[in-house]
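Problem 3 from the worked examples.
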Amino acid sequence: MQMLRKIQYKLVLFWLNFFFVVPLPFIQTISTGLQGMSANEMLAIYSGVISYAWMLAIVYLSTKPRWLDRLVGLPSIYQLHGILAIAALGLAWLHKIGTHSGGLIKQTGDLSLIILTGLIGYSLLFLASWLISRFSLLSKFKKILEKIFKHEITMLLHKLLLAAVILVFIHVQLIDYIRSITSFMIWFDGLSLLTALSYLRTKVSWYGRKGQAELKLIQNHSLSDRVRELTLGGRQSQQLDLQAGDFVFLSFPRVPKLREPHPFSLVSLPNQSGEFKLTIRDDGDFTNRLQVLRPGTTAKVTGGFGRYQAFIAEHDATASLVMITGGIGATPLFSLIPNNLSHQIYLFYSAHRQTDLLYQQQLIQWTQHANFTGFWQQGRFSDDFVLNRLPHGWQNHTLFLLSGPVSLIHHWEKLLEKAKVDSNNIFKEEFNW
């Protein structure tokens, strides 16, 4: 119980720091120079300052800090990223409505606001799958637009956030009475510089750094008509920090339309030669082009990311593990299972088609282990089938690991909640951001 409280505190502190602690020095230092202004004008200026502080936080979070991923998980980072963006936009509009300016000051502020408004509207449709997945009409509309706006275009447009931040930076530098507040400008310029350096560090100079590697494609073969298995390896593989259940970001910098990184789960941890496997389903323009890759192609890999193994380690070592998964969502479990056979493991693995049930020979081998019980079939398992095969006392002494389609995850979250399973004993890692 003490460990669970610690986990919750980490998540609460994570949100509080970015929402309140980051803007606080800006507010404290600028307040000294706003004496004599009306309350409405001061409120508008505070709104703009907080909005910019959150924009800097958004840029930092967009670099996918691995230390934060291990602490709270990348889905939580992206969720905060999105909420901060919407909040920053709202405050930016309050700032515009409550202040008056002209010339270049007005032009830089207005242009930044236009970029930010358009970008967030676009991102809500193309990047906020956690929202879109809950509205079928929006989901269908998104699929139609994806035929025009490919993933690389979406990622390129997302970088317009940097332009909006730079315009706000220039906007502030042009305001004489703000620039005269020395303590504020020290914080403003200093944090802006630190954010820029952090961004450039991850985007420009990545070779030879821990957590990033230049590898070679060793093997590329088809497991089914829509699923491919990539084997990657190379001397730099030891620079990657990979744990069971992790995912990595993969790109091929020298191959057109494959230069933007995409997340894929490890199906195996690196062997003694440093080789590991990724199993990938053809779901879009990036994954569709993987079939053209030949052995020897250079790959950029960043990682690992994920909290499956950390989640297990944060709980009782004697707890049973129940894994409920579907389709390609099972891939992280194939690296997780052999690393956790000290636990009693129950796997429920389903797929739409028999040919989509991956690595069945490996599953059969695991069933020879006393601590592994596995069920796999075409089509979803009924609730009763799963519940009747869970270990004794599963409501209190069992960890539930959910992966796969969003509908499957949401179904089992609701069912387990009704069964009074503690939410701290349920873990999911959705690739829907």
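Problem 4, a separate protein:
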Amino acid sequence: MEDKLKIKISIADRVYPLTIHPNQEEGLRKAAKKIEATIKQFEQSYAVRDKQDVLAMCALQFAAQTEQKNIDKSSEMIEAEEKLKSLNDLLQQHLSS
């Protein structure tokens, strides 16, 4: 059984202590860096000073990216299924001849 790891993640000038599995550390640290970079970008681009507004904008952006990826994957799956069905139909035609 893996031991838990205690780490501290800093987001928007606040430190969050977390107890995680060691294999989660890299992903959490990368996510925190991405959030910090996005916060900095929003603060510079829109002169937003309220951290809550900036964090809400970050949350919206990340959620929108996730949803768009889900939509794209769904369309790719539908397209792949259609191609597989066409291939299957073609194979069936040749096998039955």
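Solution to problem 4. The two ends are 58 Å apart (CA to CA). The chain is about 70% helix and 15% strand.
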